Amino acid sequence: MAGETDLGRWLRACAEVGRLLGDTEPDGEDYDSIANQALEAAGASLALVLLPVGEQHHRIAGASGKAASLLRGQVFATPPTLGADPAGTGEPAPVGVRAGHHIAEALEAAGETALTSRPGLVDWLARAQLLVAGLGQDTGRDRFLVLARPPDAAGFADVDLQLAGLLAAQVEQAIGRAHIRQLHEQLAVFAERDRIARDLHDIVIQRLFAAGLGVRALAGHLEDAASRARAEEITGELDATIGELRDTIYALRHSVGEREQLGTAIVRAVRAACEPLPFTPRLRLGGPLDAIEDERTTANLLAVITEALSNAVRHAHATRISISVTVDEDELRLRVKDNGHGFSGPTLRSGLANMDRRAAELGGTCHVGSNRRGTRVQWTVPVR
Q: Containing H/E element for 207?
C-alpha cells in the first residue's frame, strides 16, 4: 500500500499469514502465499520456502518473485551454511553472500536444464544478499524462508530481521496447532476403538459363547448322527469366530501412533496382489501382529506375501485362496493355500528361492508343497 512503512508491511504480512493458515499445516499453494507475503513485506526480489527432503536435500516448495516458476519444485543438496546463525541467538540473521553462493552451487549441481539455461539467474543468486529464517521442523529437519535482494541493493534492516522472525513464528504456531488438532482427532479415534473393543468383548463375545454352549447342549439331545455332526460344526465355527474377534479386539486396542500397523500393511499387500482375481481371497490375522516393530521382519513378510500371492494369481488358476498370518510369543507364521493346478519342477524356482532366502536371513524356515490339488506355502520366522 502507498505510504506504508516497513513495519506496517511486515505486520500486515504476519496477519495475512496467520489468517491464511489458521490451525492448518501449510501445504501446496500455501507455501507460495507465505513466500509472496514475505517478499512484499521485505521489499525483496525473490522469496523461497525450503522444505527438507530425505537426510541431505531441500526442495523449493514455495517461490515468489524473480524466476519463481523456474525455481519452484527444484531439489538440491542442503548447503552447510543454510541454517547458519553467526551470533548464536537463534534469531533470523542475514547469512550473506557465502550462503547465497552455496545455494547457487547446489542448484547448479542439481543439473536442471531450466536453470542451467539461465546462467545469469544462478550468478545473481550467488551474489545476492540473503536473509534466512527458520519455519519450524519437518521430520526433525528445519524448514526455511529465504529472502534475496540484489547485490547492489540496501541490506536487510533490523526491522526485517525481527519481523521475519515474527512471520516465521506465525507459521510455526500454525504447524503446532495443526499437530495438536491431529492429536485430538487421533485420541478421539483411539477412544472410539477402545469403546468398540469393550463392546465386542463384553457383549458380542459373551453372546457367541452362550450360543456355542447352547448348541453343544442341544447336540446331546439329537439322535440323528448327521444332525449331531452339523451341530459340532456350528460349535467349531462359533469358537473360531470368538478367536477372530479376540484378535480384532487386540488390534483395536494396540493401533496407536502414526506408523502404519502391520495388520493394515498386510491387508493392503493382499488387496494389491489379488486385484486381478474375480473372487475375494480369505484372509485371517491372528495374535499381536501390530506389536511387531522389527522392520526387517515386516519388510520380508510383506515381500513373501506378495511373492506367494503373485505365483497363485498368475500361474495356479485357482478358485480359492486363503492367507493366514498369525503370531504368538516367539514365532510369526504365514500360510498361503490355493486350490489351483499346482506345479512341479523349476518353473517357479526363482520366486521360491527368494522366499527361502528371506526366511533363512531371519533364522526361519519356508516349506512349499504342491500337487494337482493346489499349493501350500508355510513361512515361519522367530519374532523378537
A: helix 205-219
